Amino acid sequence: xxxxxxxxxxxxxxxxxxxxxxxxxxxxxxxxxxxxxxxxxxxxxxxxxxxxxxxxxxxxxxxxxxxxxxxxxxxxxxxxxxxxxxxxxxxxxxxxxxxxxxxxxxx
Length: 107
Description:
Structural class: mainly beta
Strand content: 35-45%
Largest sheet: 5 strands, antiparallel
Shape: globular
Radius of gyration: 14 Å
Distance between the termini: 44 Å
Number of strands: 7
Helix content: 10-25%
Number of helices: 1
């Protein structure tokens, strides 16, 4: 079931790279090239990990860990985030540190 799928996913990813996480705490928000795009919040630091939900451009979140996983992260690295209590991973190539209201993204 789910556990077997997770273990297979983890094992295949672990063979490619041993992922480490450094604990951090800072606010950030989603940015997209179009200014109106969305970003997949994933269950693991990989594009093959399941998409938990979609985050909208300008959506506020909290970065809670930085990883050394930088494969298929579009020039960034995967970070662990919390969005309204929901944990997941995104590429920091699509994040801007800080709060939306402090930037040009504020509406």
